[in-house]
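Hi L.,

You mentioned the student needs an example of a multi-chain input paired with its predicted structure. This one should do, with 207 residues in total across all chains.
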Amino acid sequence: MDSERDSRYFSRQELESMRFRHLGRNVLISRTTRIYDPEYVAIGDHSIVDDFCVLSGNLQVGRNVHIAHGCRVIAGREGVLMDDFSGLAFGVTIFAQSDDYTGEALTNPTVPMQYRRIARARVELGRHVIIGAGTVVFPGVMLAEGSSVGACSMVTRSTEAWAVYVGVPAKKVRERSRRMLQLEKEYLQQEGSDDAVPAGSVVGPGA
Ligand SMILES: CC(C)(COP(=O)(O)OP(=O)(O)OC[C@H]1O[C@@H](n2cnc3c(N)ncnc32)[C@H](O)[C@@H]1OP(=O)(O)O)[C@@H](O)C(=O)NCCC(=O)NCCS
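Structure written out for the whole complex:
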């Protein structure tokens, strides 16, 4: 990685001083991203978190996971799992907790907790799940392995494996190819060789 790109990310030493629950090899986290409680966050090998993200709560990130610019993952107590090779495109929001919007309780953090009612439910993204730009994922959603979600969608229900979803609320529109599983196998066999160096995030004119 060249020095200009390198300076966008925290150094290994800086990351280690943040005391993550787990910090894999070759992890890149942008200096402009905020992680509220790193001690609740585990991040696996070769994962990248780009600029202007906010990550909070009990967040478990596997290997080769990408969180693109401007994402928010509010994992809360119940937690969010992003399994290996999963990814969020620009501006995705995932939350594992929400105020009660029915009017039965007061809302928002300016009032004491006894007047609020917070729904909490874990969110999971299986291996190879990808979520398109601007999509929102609700508490309790389980995105099964290999499912994908188009841009600007709203995911309120769990998905079937290896299927493509779009829309508000997100609906299945087709099956998704499993060819990537063969490519994963080839990549993992090559790991450690020059042919398997992660591409990194490049969004400038050279992308
Ligand atoms: C979901 C997606 C993968 C489908 O791509 P595709 O297979 O090429 O599908 P098409 O563009 O042929 O669209 C098929 C239909 O779904 C609709 N559609 C496509 N994406 C949609 C979306 N995100 N939300 C709602 N409808 C969508 C199209 O309008 C079209 O409808 P029609 O048949 O009534 O005309 C793609 O549209 C998408 O959203 N990709 C995410 C891109 C992204 O966020 N990238 C981030 C940078 S990496």
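You could point out the following to them. Residues 89, 132-133, 150-153, 164, 166-167, 173 surround coenzyme A (CB under 6 Å). The mean pLDDT is 94.

Best wishes,
N.
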